[in-house]
Amino acid sequence: VAKPDAILVADSVTRRFGGLTAVDVDHLEVQRGTITALIGPNGAGKSTFFNLVSGFDTPDAGTWSFDGTDISGKPAYQIARLGMVRTFQLTKALMRLTTLENVMLGAVGQKGERMGVAPLRFLWKAQERQIQARAEELLERFRLSHMRDEFAGTMSGGQRKLLEMARALMVGPSLVMLDEPMAGVNPALTQSLLAHIQALRDEGTSIILVEHDMDVIMSISDWIVCFAEGKVIAEGRPDDIRTNPQVIDAYLGS
Ligand code: ADP
Ligand code: MG
Fold this sequence. Notes:
Keywords: ATP-binding, Nucleotide-binding, Transport. By secondary structure, the chain is an alpha/beta fold.
């Protein structure tokens, strides 16, 4: 049964690839205003679960709701419009756009990743000015203003991660999904990324993230859900997860 303040609730979600059951989640909740982490071995189904609930993949079964609205089977752009977004890695096409254009694309929904700047050209001028103003605010927030007119392809790994977050925030989401936000980021920028994630949470944005660095997970998570072979095998506060025998056995002990 969902707690009163759950922002995302998933029930009986399964996804099979041929004979492999990649996701078989009985029940998973994200509480409003928390940083909730998904941990577990490679191949445990964490990214597949993200793809399913964000509308980028279709499960074999299951229902899930966001902010009290049933969003099962809804396409990604509709889910994003309701306020639940995930970050996306820069594709080759996006590397040839400027930093500002990349962030502005976040406003035209989560299809921009595949369409390039074309959708920006269909905006009304007034709307475009508004979108640009918001994008510039976000560049400022993530200390990327000096990269505004540079091609995104010239950015460092850490700057790209910041850009991906800025783009996701264009729709003013209430839940942000981050799949390995620290991957490929040097230690100096890791701290800054963490501070940004915590600041978002402190402003009331809910966060669900997948991350492998256990120091990071233990220091920023309010709640941790451990996956193994597609299932949730344990969940709890960091101190309880750290010492949970099933988690140690399936993941931490290796
Ligand atoms: P994680 O993110 O926890 O490392 P994934 O969700 O990426 O795990 O993968 C879960 C399992 O599903 C893995 O065994 C993976 O090989 C498989 N899988 C993921 N996507 C596909 C796909 N599109 N086709 C076939 N198998 C897939
Ligand atoms: Mg993954």
